[in-house]
Design a protein that fits this description.
The complex is a heterodimer of chains A (166) and B (803).
Chain A (H helix, E strand, L loop, with lengths): L1 E7 L2 E7 L5 H8 L18 E4 L2 E4 L12 E3 L19 H8 L9 H14 L5 H7 L11 H19 L1
Parallel strand pairs in A: 1-5
Antiparallel strand pairs in A: 1-2, 3-4, 3-5
Helix pairs in contact in A: 2-5
Chain B lengths: L20 H6 L14 E7 L5 E7 L1 H4 L4 E6 H4 L29 E2 L5 E7 L2 H7 L4 E6 L6 H5 L14 E9 L2 H6 L3 E12 L8 E5 L7 E5 L4 H12 L6 E4 L15 H13 L3 E4 L2 H7 L3 E12 L5 E13 L8 H5 L12 E10 L13 H19 L3 H8 L8 E2 L5 E2 L4 H12 L1 H14 L3 E11 L7 H6 L8 E7 L5 E5 L8 H13 L6 E4 L17 H27 L7 E4 L2 E4 L2 E7 H10 L13 E5 L8 E11 L5 E11 L6 H20 L31 E4 L17 H18 L13 H26 L1
Parallel strand pairs in B: 1-12, 10-11, 14-15, 20-21, 27-28
Antiparallel strand pairs in B: 1-5, 2-4, 2-6, 3-5, 7-15, 8-13, 9-10, 9-12, 13-14, 16-17, 18-26, 19-20, 19-25, 22-23, 23-24, 26-27
Helix pairs in contact in B: 11-12, 11-20, 16-17, 17-18, 19-20
Chain lengths: 166, 803
């Protein structure tokens, strides 16, 4: 067993873990942060995408021990706490846009899709349709046919740009 | 029944953002694999690496010595728990041959992935590790892989307990087929291959089962589409009485038919919970699921059409070989049979013969995958209509229009004997052609053909219909289906004016909570926000037939409407009593009961709900309750239709295909929530296009699955798919009061032939008349080479003749 410590969604954690424990299993099974999902065993689907020190990473291809000392951000930490009765007020623009543009159906790929899109928009704040599609290449969705995901990401991008300029 | 005039309403027909989304976009979900229960144990499954073998030894003792391992069992150890094996609920013929399907095989394994043992440990990793220490010895048997070879004399058997690989031959003949073909001026005949697919819902399957502890009942959480069917079937097969088993489908991450089943691992978790007295969890890995979760399609289709001189269709012959795989799962044999009603599609003809050979092989079982029998039929007829147009030298739309059922001919009883209630193929086609710029693209195509452009433009047409909304029960009974097609809903009027709608459907991405809220809001005059929809738990929604076959809205939504109507009828009596008016003098509109001609004499649905809760003053001849339920059994299936057009750019030098534009005009009747409907169409298109261009489950001659993970089985990502242009025409269904038709599978059914017709159309000048699916660069290039060598051979033969 090896001791690991990391910050996940702003909270510090420390545990003794097996060196082979995948980061995604550490998040889900040890920390019980089950907002991040597992959809495959070959790093193809991207359902497990989180941010590792600010960049998107598939948490099924990272060992928990490799994330020692890192900052991990998941979909669970994305929304700001909202004092308003309308909880969507605290949502990240991507969460809002996936909702308003119907960018999800079953929702299983959504946490990974949102985290991958967040990374994409940090790199490119104003992607065109092709750039969004290529930017999300590593994340599979079986429900939406991607059209509304593309719309959602571009809607969120516009809101984020507006927020940045105001 | 005829369509009723629906009053203008605030909710139905408008986009309401989904109630389902909040927990999904914030990660506060409850997928089955999220569950952690006190004392929970983890199961890992030992699977056969061979397609077909005799099992000569299973020794689990090595696994038992591994750290954290609590138990391990062979098939023989647990055989007494499931004497009858897993169920097939659709015995399509009386003499259907069905291999005994034990959740854990004992003497013989019949496909790669068949279960031979299970290991139970106190951790996920520990259980997986210990499977390596289960000692299994196999004596290889010949693998049956090719469907046609399997039916030849002397073929090895896929199951040595049977004396044939033919599970069944099912036939339906309507009209005089011989007469239709014998003197026909034109006959067009083709063989199409509908390849095997893997559904790949992004949430892998998972099961948790807790033994009776506080609740005197087993509780099973499963990533299933069918909690009600699962409960009944497990009770019948695993010796747990139905009333002592509660099944919950929590958040479920897509299904597409793959979670419409009763799986070995569900039976195993139930029996292990019983045997060990502890909560048990199993979660499949993706690669494991590719062996253990059903596949779809896999048919060889020999089809022919006979035409008159005027290009009207005389008749059609269909002969199918359908690969069942190694076992008949829940509805495996019924899937290709559904095609019997669909090969004629939207076309009029005097004769149709349909013969289906269900063949057992040593592969993962097939079963329902999005569309289930109708995509295969639609692919064949729409491909064949294009081939016929080419052979007859007519424009493909002209041939279709000459033969389709005209709008004024509805309702129309087809040659297959079912009645299409409504449709307007002319309107959908006109709209699609305009959105697509059909004439403009045809002109461009001609220019590029004339210029010898190495990248050719192809235009593909699919004018489809389908039968969905699985109901009506009597018809299903006549097809030997093991259950009815009704659906249940109940409405609970809470004293504070809020409402709970209970539905027997079990959504896993379709947005029932939102759409059912819209239906109930309008029917009851209660705000959309004040309605909760509960589902997917047999203790809450005690009765239901679940979600598949594009049935939920046309049957389940219909049930919600009827249950709400019953609430309104009761509330009206109470309102009349409270307002001291005759019931006939009370009108109900938008949640208010009002005495005719007395605007001040009124009360609301909420006030009536509170009054009946208090029960101080209500009519003597009724119970103090507005709560109502409804079980509806529609009189007919649902027949959505539409016209899809696809433009492809095909690089004749590399075989690469790119979709340039895709237009889908669907007619799904009245629409409850346009945004949700559009989303269903988008997703359907993606899966149908995936069959056309990307996906194929491949087995080698030894029955090994070569596409065993997402590395090898190509599920398209965002860059692989185009933008979709979608629109609708609205021809209300006349067979339910909402006027709605199914929408979940339409996009998948329509799109595959549209894409392949476009690919073939691009290559037609090169002599290409078919391209195998998926139309990968390799398959397209091969088709071009085959056509070019055929024309070279023909040319040299002609030269030889001249010399």
């Amino acid at each position: 067993m090896t001791r690991v410590g990391m910050t996940v969604d702003g909270e510090p954690y420390e545990h003794e873990v097996e060196p082979r424990l995948l980061l995604v299993h550490y998040l889900r099974d040890v920390l019980e942060k089950t907002g991040t999902n597992i959809g495959c065993d070959t790093s193809n689907c991207g359902a497990c995408t989180v941010h590792l020190d600010g960049r998107s990473a598939k948490s099924c291809t990272v060992l928990a021990v490799q994330a020692d000392g890192s900052q991990v951000d998941t979909v669970e930490g994305l929304a700001e706490p909202s004092s308003d009765a309308d909880e969507t007020d605290g949502w990240h623009p991507l969460q809002k846009a996936f909702h308003t543009e119907h960018g999800l159906q079953c929702g299983y790929c959504t946490p990974g899709m949102i985290m991958a899109a967040k990374d994409l928009l940090e790199e490119n704040p104003d992607p065109d349709e092709t750039e969004v599609r290529e930017g999300l290449e590593g994340n599979l969705c079986r429900c939406t046919g991607y059209v509304n995901i593309v719309k959602a990401v571009r809607t969120a991008a516009a809101e984020l740009r507006e927020g940045a300029s105001s | 029944m005829t369509a009723v005039d629906t009053p203008p309403s605030a909710n139905v027909g408008t986009t309401k953002l989904r109630k389902e989304d909040a927990h999904l976009v914030t990660g506060r979900t409850q997928w089955t694999d999220n569950l952690q229960l006190t004392g929970m144990l983890h199961v890992a499954v030992v699977r056969s690496p061979m397609a077909h073998a005799r099992v000569t030894k299973v020794d689990v003792s090595g696994a038992l010595e591994q750290p954290g391992v609590v138990a391990a069992f062979s098939g023989a150890d647990l055989a007494d728990h499931w004497a009858g094996g897993l169920p097939c609920a659709w015995p399509v013929t009386e003499d259907m041959q069905s291999p005994t399907h034990l959740p854990i095989a004992t003497d013989e394994v019949r496909h790669v992935g068949d279960v031979v043992a299970v290991v139970v440990a106190n951790s996920r990793y520990g259980a997986a590790d210990a499977t390596e220490f289960v000692d299994v010895e196999y004596e290889p048997l010949p693998a049956v892989v090719d469907m046609e070879a399997a039916l030849a004399d002397g073929s090895p058997l896929a199951d040595t307990q049977l004396d044939t690989n033919r599970s069944f031959t099912w036939q339906k003949i309507d009209g005089d087929v011989d007469a239709a073909f014998d003197s026909a001026p034109h006959v067009v005949e083709r063989r199409f291959i509908n390849q095997r697919l893997i559904p790949t819902a992004i949430e892998p399957r998972a099961v948790v089962c807790a033994p009776p502890r506080e609740h005197r009942e087993y509780t099973m959480w499963s990533a299933t589409q069918v909690p009600h069917i699962l409960r009944l079937m497990l009770a019948l097969t695993c010796g747990v009485p139905e009333h002592e088993l509660r099944v919950i489908a929590p958040d479920v991450g897509g299904g597409f038919g793959s979670k419409l089943n009763v799986y070995a691992e569900e039976a195993i978790c139930l029996v292990l919970a019983k045997r060990l007295g502890k909560p048990i969890k199993w979660t499949e890995s993706r690669s494991e699921g590719y062996q253990a979760t059903i596949h779809g399609r896999d048919q060889i289709q020999d089809v022919s059409l006979a035409f008159n001189e005027d290009h009207t269709i005389r008749g059609m012959k269909v002969e199918l070989h359908a690969d069942m795989g190694a076992y008949l799962q829940l509805v495996t044999p019924g899937i290709p049979i559904l095609g019997a009603f669909m090969y004629n599609s939207i076309y009029k003809m005097d004769a149709l013969s349909f013969t289906c050979h269900g063949v057992l092989t040593n592969k993962t079982p097939t079963d329902a995958y999005r569309g289930a029998g109708r995509p295969e039929a639609t692919y064949a007829i729409e491909r064949l209509m294009d081939e016929a147009a080419n052979e007859l030298g007519v424009e493909p739309f002209e041939l279709r229009e000459r033969n389709w059922i005209k709008h004024e001919e509805f309702p129309y009883t087809t040659i297959a004997g079912i009645e299409y209630d409504s449709g307007n193929y002319e309107a959908a086609t006109a709209k699609a052609k305009e959105l697509f710029d059909y004439d403009g693209l045809r002109a461009e195509q001609q220019r590029r053909r004339d210029d010898g452009d190495p990248v050719q433009l192809g235009i593909g047409i699919s004018t489809f219909t389908e039968m969905c909304g699985l109901a009506p029960s009597r018809v299903l009974g006549s097809l030997s289906y093991g259950a009815g097609g009704w659906e249940h809903a109940s409405v609970r009027m809470l004293p504070s004016g809020k409402v709970e709608v209970i539905t027997g459907t079990s959504p896993h991405g379709q947005g029932h909570v939102t759409s059912w809220s819209q239906i109930a809001a309008d029917a009851l005059g209660i705000p959309f926000e004040d309605i909760e929809v509960r589902h997917g738990d047999t203790a809450v929604a005690h009765k239901g037939m679940d979600t598949y076959g594009s049935r939920s809205l046309v049957v389940g939504g219909y049930a919600v409407q009827v249950a709400c109507d019953k609430v309104v009828a009761k509330a009206k009596r109470v309102a009349a009593h409270l307002l001291e008016a005759a019931e006939d003098d009370v009108e109900f509109d938008a949640g208010t009961f009002q005495v005719k001609g007395s605007p001040d004499a009124n009360t609301t649905m909420q006030d009536v709900a509170l009054a009946i809760f208090a029960a101080h003053d209500y009519p003597e001849d009724m119970e103090p309750s507005l709560d109502s339920d409804a079980t509806v059994d529609p009189e007919n299936f649902s027949y959505p239709h539409g016209t899809h057009l696809c433009a492809t750019e095909v690089d004749t030098e590399t075989g690469a295909v790119t979709i340039r534009s895709y237009v889908a005009v669907d007619d799904v009747g009245t629409v409850i929530n346009p945004q949700i409907v559009e989303g269903q169409v988008h997703g359907g298109l993606a899966q149908g296009i995936a069959q056309a261009l990307f996906e194929e489950a491949v087995y080698d001659a030894e029955g090994q699955l070569k596409t065993g993970s997402l590395l090898d089985y190509y599920v398209p990502g965002a860059p692989d798919l185009p933008h979709f242009t979608t629109d609708r025409t609205e021809t209300p269904a006349t067979t339910n009061p909402l006027g709605v038709k199914g929408v979940g599978e339409a996009g998948t059914i329509a799109s595959t032939p549209a894409v392949i017709n476009a690919v073939v159309d691009a290559l037609r000048p090169m002599g290409v008349n078919d391209v195998l699916m998926p139309a990968s660069p390799q398959n397209v290039w091969n088709a071009i080479q085959a056509a070019s060598s055929a024309s070279t051979t023909a040319a040299s033969a002609a030269d030889g003749g001249a010399a």
